[in-house]
């Protein structure tokens, strides 16, 4: 359970916000490191995109509205890991949701393609989000960007997660992803926002690689 931030009860640090200077530092870090990562990631995305295209009919990329900083929606980029029409089928599978809270997760989701299952296990479907980072919609590190409908269900102190740009990776991804309940996830987001530092971003980026290799909570 995540109950405090360095021993301080969560609700007692609700006034803490990132300064404009800190946000500028974070953005410069995203541009510099993100630009370097693009050199490696984009050729990999091209190869993976070919596998997606050969595996099932439909577009290579999947775009979806997510809630960004300040409650502003944006379109997230992912490699398509599900069959076309998967969003419409979500309601039909609602009673099989294996995740707590408003998010939907299934370990054996019938909508996932063969290549898509492999992409999701290794988080390769998330790689195109480097483009969202370069656009400024996302950060390399930050809270998980929720669906617009999911984000609207966050109330009170949980809305603090919207004070910072959502990220490709973060505490939720490093500590266990889908193995962490929704309530714990938003607490982790709150801890990140109220305790942000550049060194923490660097640490979480470095921890992302072993987390992906271990594939904890990835489905």
Descriptive account of the structure:
- The protein has helices spanning 20-55, 86-89, 114-121, 129-135, 148-151, 171-175, 182-194, 198-214; strands spanning 4-5, 8-9, 61-67, 73-79, 139-141, 167-169.
- It is an alpha+beta fold.
- It has one domain (4-214).
- A hairpin with a 5-residue loop joins strand 3 (61-67) and strand 4.
- The longest helix is centred in the first third of the chain and has 36 residues, at 20-55.
- The model is unreliable at 1-16 (pLDDT under 50).
Task: Briefly say what this structure is.
The chain is of the alpha+beta class and 219 residues long. Helix content is 43%, strand content 11%.
Question: What key phrases describe this protein's structure?
Answer:
219 residues, alpha+beta, two-stranded antiparallel sheet, 8 helices, 43% helix, 11% strand, disordered N terminus
